[in-house]
Design goal:
Two copies of one chain form a homodimer.
Chain A (H helix, E strand, L loop, with lengths): L1 E7 L4 H13 L2 E8 L6 H13 L2 E6 L41 H23 L7 E6 L4 H6 L5 H13 L2 H4 L5 E4 L7 H10 L22 H12 L9
Parallel strand pairs in A: 1-2, 1-4, 2-3, 4-5
């Protein structure tokens, strides 16, 4: 069985850990990073550095045009929607927070799946691979904290989108190869992820989770607070915050 | 009930006819056109002209970066994969043709849905609309001929992708508003579409269906042949080919 895989790598703790895991599992792995109008580009530099450290092929796609369409979000439009600090109303765990980017994971998965399908069609139709020996995997890093807040980080969503991309693809409808979306840390807390990252020797000092692009993590945004709590509960040191 | 709708308008006969139909059905309609590395930009000029004729708001998104990921196709990569002429092997109706762009409609729908969701979240959370009074519609123009060839033009696909974007969205999971993907001409032949276009006074001379960007339609590619056959069967004149 030859596995073709794409891992979505933002440069944060979660996706870096999943990428390290994927690197151990498959041979043909591409890390895909999106520049999509995040308010800073620090994450992108981190994604490049992590791919290099892990010796994974890296593709960067500038999809910042989605500011024009996915505009109702603090991540794509921070002037209209300030990034929330630790306030009750906007915190993850209550309603879907303003850091939700409309249909972001649907967009990301469809782009990742298109790259994966192009590579696989090439291997079958040009290079003569046997479809029965080919596997298609997309690695993603949603986890327990995300899916309490974001609809497109929940298991029900991954189940449905897998069926949809299968039905809409040539590799499934003509060659019988299903897309397998792997979400290996979906039940993990941040503490679990910190432990796994240590175990896999993820270069943590090269990751970036903060919603802001300052020199050091702000320690005020939801993302910083959740990460700090995770390392504390795991009794581990976050080298980024030393 | 307030309907928010996005219609995917390529500038061809099919999507122009569906856009004219949508204009008659809903009030808040945006036509969305993608520049995605088609081998010519003629279709895009046509989409702009048709939107103007039909008095529909028009948004153009340059997603030509998808050449990098959806590269296994004659439409995104004509140098590697020449556009097929009327040969048996590549003709629509046999296997999925080389003009299939990997996961194209999944990408298009996710982008359209993101715009629609942004507009609807704004109407509810900023302007105070009642979610029970809001409807979300995406108009698309697959038809009988397409779905015999392209997996992402078949009813099974639309059924699955609707469920997926519902599960991945805030408007559905928090406000109970489902995305309704309307494919009003899915069972139509080209002759049926030509008749409907005449009935709706679609400015046919402004549409473009040919895969090539020459002055006049090439009359050799699959798309030209299907269009000509449709007008002939409907006993109508195609003003573009006069």
């Amino acid at each position: 069985m030859v596995s073709y895989a794409v891992t979505l790598l933002s440069g944060g703790l979660d996706s870096s850990t999943v990428t390290a895991l994927a690197k151990n599992e498959v041979s043909n792995l591409t890390a895909l990073t999106f520049h999509y109008g995040q308010s800073h580009s620090k994450e992108i530099d981190c994604a490049k550095a992590i791919s290099k450290s892990l010796k994974v092929e890296h593709t960067l796609l500038d999809i910042s045009f989605i500011e024009k369409i996915s505009w109702y979000s603090a991540l794509t439009n921070p002037e209209k929607f300030p990034i929330p600090t630790n306030s009750e109303k906007n915190q993850i765990g209550f309603n879907i927070p303003i850091t939700y980017v409309p249909l972001r994971n649907t967009i990301f998965i469809s782009l990742a799946a298109s790259l994966l399908e192009s590579n696989i069609l090439n291997s079958i139709e040009i290079n003569g691979a046997n479809p029965d020996d080919v596997e298609a995997i997309i690695y993603m890093a949603p986890n327990f904290i995300d899916y309490s807040g974001y609809p497109d980080c929940r298991p029900e969503f991954y189940e449905q989108i897998s069926k949809a991309i299968n039905q809409g693809s040539k590799i499934y409808t003509e060659y019988g190869i299903p897309f397998n979306i792997k979400t290996p840390i979906i039940d993990f807390t941040k503490a679990d992820i910190a432990k796994l990252a240590y175990k896999l020797s993820v270069p943590l000092e090269k990751t970036w989770s903060c919603y802001r692009g300052t020199d050091k993590p702000c320690q005020e945004c939801d993302s910083c607070i959740l990460r700090a709590k995770g390392f504390k509960e795991a009794n581990l040191i976050d080298p980024l915050c030393e």
